[in-house]
Amino acid sequence: MGSASAWAQCAGGAPVPGASAAQIVALAGQGQTRAPGVEPWSPAALAQQLGAGADMRTLALSSAALLLADRTQIRMSASAQVRLCESQPQRTLLELAAGRLWARTKKTPATLQLQTPAALAVVRGTDWDVEVDAAGRTTLTVLSGLVELSNAQGSVQLGPAEQGFVEPGRAPVKRVLVNPRERVQWVAAYPTDTTRWAEFQRPDIAPALADLRAALQAGQWNAAQAQLQQMAARGDASAVVPLVLADLDLRNGQMDAAQARLAAAWPRTQDPRIAARRAELLMALDRPAEARAWLDTTRTAAPAAPELLLADADWHRLEGRGDAALALYRQAADAAPAGTAQQAAALRGLGRALQERGDLHAARTTLARAV
C-alpha cells in the first residue's frame, strides 16, 4: 500500500480542520486509519469518526462501510484504501488509491468527486461501483444515475448499464453492460455470515468446528483460514471446509478463486451446496454460459436439491426466462424443509420474480411468507 499512499494528494481539496468527514458504520475483520500528515496507521474501530483528509484502508479478509457527511454510503472491499479529502453536506471529494468500493449517493443533485490514479469521476446522483487495480487501472460501473469519467486524455459520460475503463495516461473508454445491477454482485455475493452453514448449527458440533465457529464469529479471519487449511491438509472431507474457505476468498475480494475452489471440491464432496454456491459466483462474475453448463451437470447428480433448484431459478430470472424461473422457485420452495432459510430464500426469489412480472398482490403475499 506504500505506493498508493504516496500517490494520494487530495488535489483540489481543502480539508476543514476539526470537521467529521465520515463515520465507520460497519467493520468486518481489520481496518486501519490515519489522520492527515500522520505516517503510522492505527487500528480502525466501529463508530469511529474520521476527520477531513483522513485515510481509511481495509486489510486482507476484511471489509468496512462508511457513512459520509453528505449521507453517501460506501462499502469497501478487502485491501481497499480511500482518502476522505473533503466531505461536507455541500461537497465531497474522495480518492481511491487501491481496491474496490461500492457507493450510493443519496443527495440530489450530487456533488461528489472521486479521484483515482487514472481518472476523475464526477458523480451526479447515483449508485456505482469502482475498482482500482495494482497498476492504477480504473473500472467504474454505473447502476443508476450519471457519472462523468475524465482525465487529460479525454472523457466519457456514463449512464445506467454503462461501464467506464481507463488506464493511466490513456483516455477513458465506455462499454455497455447487460443488467449491471444483477451482474455487479460483489456486494450481494459477499458472505454476510460465514457460520450460516448447517454444520455450525448442530447441537453436537465437533470440537474442531466449534473452535472454527468461535474464530469466525469473532472476526478472526486469518486464524480461521489457517485452521481450515490445516483441516484440508489432513484430508477432512467435510463440505463445510471448502464452503467457508470460499467465503474467506470472497472477503478478500477473490471471487474467481472462490469459484475455482468450489469447482475443485465438487467431485470429491458431491454436495449440492457447493454446486449451487459456485453457480451463484459464476453468475456474479457475468459468466452465464459457464453457469448454465455447470448447473446442467450438477443437477443431474442432485436433481431435487433445493439449493440447486434455487440457483437454477436465479439463472433463468437473470436471463429473462420468467416462466421457467417461477416454476423453479416454486419447486425449490416445495423441496426445502418448511421454515428453513432455504425455503425463505426460494420464496424471496419467487416474490422478486412475481414483482418483475407485475403480479404485485401475489408478490406481496409470497414475500410475507418468506419473513
UniProtKB/TrEMBL annotation:
Superkingdom of this protein's organism: Bacteria
Classification via InterPro entries: FecR, TPR-like_helical_dom_sf
Domain FecR protein residue range list: 55-148
A Pfam short name: TPR_19
PANTHER family per record: FECR PROTEIN DOMAIN-CONTAINING PROTEIN (PTHR38731:SF1), LIPL45-RELATED LIPOPROTEIN-RELATED (PTHR38731)
Protein name stated in the entry: FecR protein domain-containing protein
